[in-house]
Design goal:
This protein has two domains: 6-80, Orthogonal Bundle (Multidrug-efflux Transporter Regulator, Chain: A, Domain 2), CATH 1.10.1660.10; 86-133. The chain has six helices and three strands. It has helices at 8-15, 19-28, 47-60, 65-76, 82-116, 127-133, and strands at 6-7, 35-36, 42-44.
């Protein structure tokens, strides 16, 4: 694969994404604009597949595209340090921990509602629906 140009369909297949994903990453600036043939077809370097795989793996780990863009910048910047990457990863771990905490609280609240509902009657007297309808409003953050 090294050294040869690839068309958009080849890159998409090799990276396991849709052609539209490549175009989107291009528009977002995550991928450099590729060379084009005289007929206007995009020609990508094989390195593009590695970058797309990096982006997809970062997303699997919970990084947003903006955060992934920063990781790519850190990767390509010769003056960046591993400590900067570690700080970004630590921030993501902290964010995930907060989400887990929030999800755990939601689960516990739903468990209470489920356990409070022993009725098989009409939904007009359903304690779960009543609780959702009459829940106090939370202050906006």
């Amino acid at each position: 694969m090294a050294g040869r140009s690839m068309q958009i369909g080849q890159v998409a297949a090799e990276a396991g994404v849709h052609v539209q994903t490549l175009r989107y990453y291009e528009r977002r600036g995550l991928l450099e604009a590729p060379d084009r043939t005289s007929g206007g077809f995009r020609l990508y370097s094989p390195e593009t597949v590695r970058i797309i795989r990096f982006i997809k793996r970062a997303q699997e780990l919970g990084f947003s595209l903006e955060e992934t863009e920063e990781l790519l910048r850190l990767k390509d910047d010769q003056t960046s340090t591993c400590a900067e990457v570690r700080a970004a990863a630590r921030a993501k771990v902290d964010e995930i921990d907060q989400k887990i905490e929030s999800l755990q609280a939601m689960r516990e609240a739903l468990d209470v509602l489920v356990n409070s509902c022993r009725s098989n009657g009409s939904t007009r007297a359903c304690p779960i629906l009543e609780s959702i309808e009459h829940a106090p409003r939370k202050a906006k953050r």
